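A.,

Following up on our hallway conversation. Structure tokens first:
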């Protein structure tokens, strides 16, 4: 078997950004994962094979997802927005940010690359911004 076949068997047709986060050790099995808008579930294979606590839904279940996310945001003390290349275009992320503001959560944001655009909903709302995309910087922004 060649390397590509082995990787596909282990990870499925995972998004390259998510694969990079796994390789860097930024996702661990003690985390709870929400995949909103999972479609056919191409990013779920690795997590399901490795016993992660995962909640996945597609847009057909939008109201159910929003209710669950609102409850989870409500239970949290902080709302962390990881800003990737396309985050600023995400209606889901905008909704989550607005919900966190409504629920008076401390907003924290971190860009995976400084050139990425910030979500409009995150601008001018008193969010703390991490200066780098690493654990220590994000932790500092949360305090």
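Then the amino acids I'd put at each of the 143 positions:
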């Amino acid at each position: 078997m060649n390397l590509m076949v082995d990787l596909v068997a282990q990870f499925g047709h995972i998004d390259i950004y998510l694969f990079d986060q796994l390789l860097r050790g930024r996702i661990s099995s003690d985390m709870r994962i929400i995949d909103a808008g999972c479609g056919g579930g191409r990013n779920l294979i690795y997590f399901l094979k490795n016993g992660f606590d995962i909640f996945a839904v597609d847009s057909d279940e939008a109201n159910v997802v929003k209710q669950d996310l609102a409850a989870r945001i409500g239970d949290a003390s902080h709302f962390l927005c990881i800003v990737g290349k396309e985050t600023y275009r995400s209606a889901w992320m905008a909704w989550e940010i607005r919900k966190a503001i409504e629920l008076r959560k401390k907003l924290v944001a971190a860009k995976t690359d400084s050139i990425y655009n910030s979500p409009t909903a995150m601008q001018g709302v008193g969010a703390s911004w991490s200066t780098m995309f690493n654990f220590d910087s994000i932790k500092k922004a949360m305090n």
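The chain is about 40% helix and 15% strand. Curious whether your intuition agrees with the design.

B.
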